[in-house]
Amino acid sequence: MKKSYHSLCAWTFNAGKGGFTPYDTRAAWAGDKLDTVGKIELINERIRPRLPGHIELGFEIHYDYEYCEENAKAIADALCENNIALAMVTPGAHRHFPYGGICSPDPVERKAANAYGARSVELAYKELKKAWSKDVPPTFVLWNGSYGYDLASTGIQKMYQYLKEGIAGLCKLEKSLGGELYIAIEPKPNEGYPAMFLPTVASAIVFWKKLEQEYGIDITKKGLNKEFGHSEMIGLDHIYDTVEEIDNNMLMHMHVNSQGYNDGIILGGPGKFDIDHGARINGMNIAIAGLIDQAGFNRWKGHDMQVRAHDTEEQGIDRVVRSVLSWDACERAASDLDYNLLWQYLVKRETAKAEDLMRDSVVRACKYFNEVYVK
After folding, report:
1. I need a labelling partner for 261 at 20 to 30 A (CA). Which of 74, 110, 282, 339 fits?
2. Is position 90 within any domain?
3. How many Å apart are CA 189 and CA 201, to the nearest integer?
4. Are 316 and 307 in contact (CB under 8 A)?
5. What is the pLDDT of residue 19?
6. What's the per-residue H, E or C state across 207-256?
7. Of 329, 324, 314, 316, which is closest to residue 362 (Cα–Cα)?
8. Which long-range contacts (CB under 8 A, 24 or more apart) does 308-311 make?
9. Where are the alpha helices (DSSP H) in the chain?
């Protein structure tokens, strides 16, 4: 069986989100007790043994509160020692810049935000480089959490131009460092502003095309971090998103979480906030697994998820295992699906029979999950 690359996120292992939920449910995962290196060791000791051997593990981290100049060397050492690759790095600019970040009208904030992004990519090439997978280089993800606004004005056009200038500059810097990273925009329709730049897959694709045209950016390794939940939460079709990403050669990274409305068990969906459940077994995910397999995608599939507010540490670990195994089950079911027969049914308008095939795939995925899941 070919290798399947799954990355786990440092931010999943938290003591509690706070806000409307407790911040101290899992005391053993508090920041002063479980640092980034400790999370790597936890994954190796508690999660890896429960996964099939064909699954390769990676790790995802934010600059500068999960990796920084002070701990990057220790993180790289821990990743190498535990045979876990660096799968994704991303600047946590939303924690620092409240007025648009690299697209801010304020030149002081804009300059600081651009410098912040530069430091995050430079560390990936310096201290963290030895932890890169030789076969699947990491992705540098630009999440749009700080690219937003809450006032209707003609200034939005200038902010968008600043956004293009800032990301073009970052791409040129990355190229000067080696050009080996994949760079992906992670669209999001809301959070943390009422209105966001780059809210959808289509808007991010257009954005990259403009950077190629206006700034001469090579977009061969540029594209999307596919976040299922961000499409789900505004009622968009993440299967069609996948088609657009593949059609434009822009599927660089994936976050296979769910907002919950599409399996009939967990709640969430359009109009809800960012719930970040783990991957689920359902027909939509089997369809996406089939699409990416046919397209030859075999890069990192990240489990950008939050354990539930009521979970203990043990239950949180179990949810991560379940997420990885659920996506693996969807991949297995997709590989067994008779695509020719499915297409024949669709051509003949026998859609009920096509539905039967997809439902049988869901059943097979559930059976596989039950076979490999060990408590």
Report:
1. 339
2. yes
3. 10
4. yes
5. 87
6. HHHHHHHHHCCCCCCEEEEEEHHHHHCCCCCHHHHHHHHHHCCCEEEEEC
7. 329
8. 309/16, 309/17, 309/21, 309/22, 309/25, 310/25, 311/25, 311/26
9. 36-42, 72-81, 107-125, 155-177, 201-215, 228-232, 238-247, 283-294, 313-336, 339-347, 351-372
End-to-end CA distance of the chain: 24
Q: What is the CATH number of the domain that holds 55?
A: 3.20.20.150
Which pLDDT score, from 0 to 100, does residue 144 have?
A: 84
Indicate whether 186 belongs to any domain.
yes
The reply to whether 53 falls in a domain is yes
348, part of any domain: no
Do the beta carbons of residue 216 and residue 189 sit within 8 Å? no
Give the model's pLDDT for residue 275.
Answer: 87
Element (H, E) at 375: none
Listed in sequence order, the residues at least 6 apart from 144 whose beta carbon sits closer than 8 Å to its beta carbon are 185, 186, 187, 188, 196, 197, 198, 199
154-197 pLDDT, tens digit per residue, is 999 999 999 999 999 999 999 999 999 999 999 999 888 999 99
How many structural domains are present in the chain? 1
Where does residue 328 rank: exposed (0-12), middle (13-18), buried (19+ CB within 10 A)? Answer: buried
The parent domain of residue 127 ranges over 4-337
Task: Give the pLDDT band (50/70/90) at residue 374.
Answer: confident
Three-state secondary structure of 256-317: CCECCCCCCCCCCCCCCCCCCECCCCCHHHHHHHHHHHHCCCCCCEEECCCCCCCCCHHHHH
Mean pLDDT computed over 92-107: 96
Average pLDDT, the chain: 96
Q: How far apart are CA 288 and CA 269, in angstroms?
A: 18
Residue type at 281 in one-letter notation: I
Indicate the pTM of the whole model.
Answer: 0.97
